[in-house]
Design a protein that fits this description.
This protein folds into three domains: about 200 residues, Beta-Lactamase (2-Layer Sandwich); about 90 residues, Helix Hairpins; about 150 residues, Heat Shock Protein 90, CATH 3.30.565. It contains seven helices and twelve strands. Helix 5 runs parallel beside helix 6. The protein starts with 11 loop residues before the first helix and ends in a 7-residue tail after the last strand.
């Protein structure tokens, strides 16, 4: 059975670290190889320069004193302990002078160059074996059939360059080894943190929505992933909670109109009922049906808005005409219900969104204010620019307001406070406004209105604050 590799070896972090180490090792090897080639080339050029200089000196002696002068020069140099290797060979191949036993058995290359190995005798009478050393030389004809051979011992430089080559290979191997070790360390740490996130994901898939991914506070990409993952789980838990409660909410809020409609239809079917009472019962049943259809249409509208189906119709527009038209529409309504109504509109502002949805949100805000503000109260519709450049559309009333603890809850579907149970409605008005705010990336604000006194919570201000929009867009 094939043994399975450890999990961290299969991680992207390990592979990327290993790849980075390999690339670094390759680049280091190339750099060191260049240094090696440059050093070896410089040593070779220096050796050749010394040999050529010595050959030039021999040529000058030949020009001054002939072959005898060359012979004396070589004898003086060898007796004086020169590090240069010399040979002077006559036309018959016999050695005349020099510090080598004879011509090396090595192929002669272009212009008389050759690399060879020679045996050097122990220094100062040491009883050690002859040392085989590498050398480089040049053999050049001189005079009538004579040959001068001049070489340089390059053993020490070869050893130095050899050590440099071994150091380069060792450094490259060390870089690869350290890369593998760092890859193991990094990928194991990376794998442990990802395993923790995956464990939470598997737990959530089993139905435990309360689990959250751990964070270490480092602020790195994995910590940010955990934060986004936890935010997603918070949103998912909220949605699941809403889904669990939506059935109960629908049953609770729609039971009364359905019961009333059924009772009226039963009354209409009674034999002792007259035609007029039956017609009234049927008309009321139609009204109840319209109310139910309105609730379901509101639910569908909220769902479609939350799904972002209307984003394609977004445009950049001036909301002032829209707010003014809405004010003209609701002014007679408020007058009929005994409310003072005012409109305040700042010109020259723009927002980006769907004008129809913005109008629907204002209508719901105004309906909410007119419904819960007592007769004699005041309602104001306002369009203004905030200090930070955002655009605010608000409706302020002097009604009972909403307690601060309930302001987040009233934007959920079918949520109605106990004080408003005797008022007609389904608890979807502010939910629709919240959905419209979210699809526009706008902020929905509920706070105390103009009628509040010393923080007693009287009055309500509902504001839609739209993000800054470029007028030229």
């Amino acid at each position: 059975m094939t043994r399975r590799l450890p999990s961290f070896v299969r991680t992207t972090a390990f592979r990327l670290t290993l790849l980075s180490a390999a690339l670094f090792a390759l680049s280091s090897f190339l750099i060191l190889a260049f240094v090696y080639a440059a050093s070896a080339g410089a040593a070779l050029r220096r050796t050749d320069a010394v040999i050529n200089d010595e050959l030039a000196a021999v040529e000058r002696r030949f020009q001054e004193s002939g072959i005898q002068g060359v012979n004396r020069y070589i004898l003086q140099r060898t007796v004086g302990g020169s590090d240069v290797l010399y040979l002077l060979i006559n036309p018959n191949g016999r050695l005349l002078s020099g510090n080598l036993n004879g011509m090396p058995d090595a192929p002669i290359l272009d212009e008389g160059w050759l690399d060879f190995v020679y045996g050097r005798s122990p220094v100062d009478g040491e009883e050690s074996e002859r040392d085989s050393r590498r050398a480089r030389a040049r053999a050049v004809p001189i005079g009538d059939g004579y040959t001068v051979f001049i070489g340089i011992d390059i053993e020490d430089e070869d050893r130095l360059i050899g050590r440099m080559l071994r150091a380069i290979l060792a450094a490259s191997a060390l870089v690869i080894a350290l890369g593998i070790i760092s890859g193991v360390v990094v990928s194991r740490r990376f794998s442990r943190r990802l395993d923790a996130v995956n464990m939470v994901a598997r737990t959530v898939m089993r139905g435990e929505l309360t689990r959250r991914a751990p964070r270490n506070g480092s602020g790195d990409e994995l910590d940010e992933l955990s934060a986004n993952f936890n935010s997603m789980l918070d949103r998912l838990e909220e949605l699941m909670h809403r889904m669990r409660n939506v059935g109960d909410s629908i049953a609770h809020d729609l039971r009364s109109p359905l019961t009333r409609m059924r009772n009226r239809m039963e009354d209409a079917l009674r034999a002792d009922g007259d035609r007029k009472s039956r017609q009234a019962a049927l008309e009321q049943a139609l009204n109840d049906s319209d109310e139910l259809l309105g609730v379901f249409n509101a639910i569908l509208s909220i769902s479609r808005i939350e799904a972002g189906e209307r984003r394609d119709s977004f445009e950049t527009f001036d909301p002032a005409p829209l707010v003014s038209d809405m004010g003209e529409l609701y002014e007679p309504v408020c007058e009929d219900s005994g409310h003072d109504f005012g409109v305040q509109v700042d010109d020259g502002l723009v927002i980006r969104g769907d004008p129809n949805l913005v109008s629907q949100a204002m209508a719901n805000m105004l309906d909410n204010a007119a419904k819960y503000t007592p007769a004699g109260g005041a309602i104001q519709l306002r369009l203004r620019q905030c200090r930070d450049g955002r655009v605010e559309i608000s409706v302020t009333d002097t009604g009972p307001g909403i307690p601060e603890a309930d302001r987040l809850r009233v934007t959920q579907r079918f949520v109605r406070l106990e004080e408003s149970r005797n008022q007609p409605g389904s608890g979807l008005g502010l939910s629709l406004v919240k959905a419209i705010a979210d699809v526009h990336n706008a902020e929905l604000i509920l706070d105390d209105g103009a009628g509040s006194h010393d923080g007693d919570g009287t009055g309500l201000r509902i504001a839609l604050v739209f993000p800054f929009a470029d007028k030229t867009a």
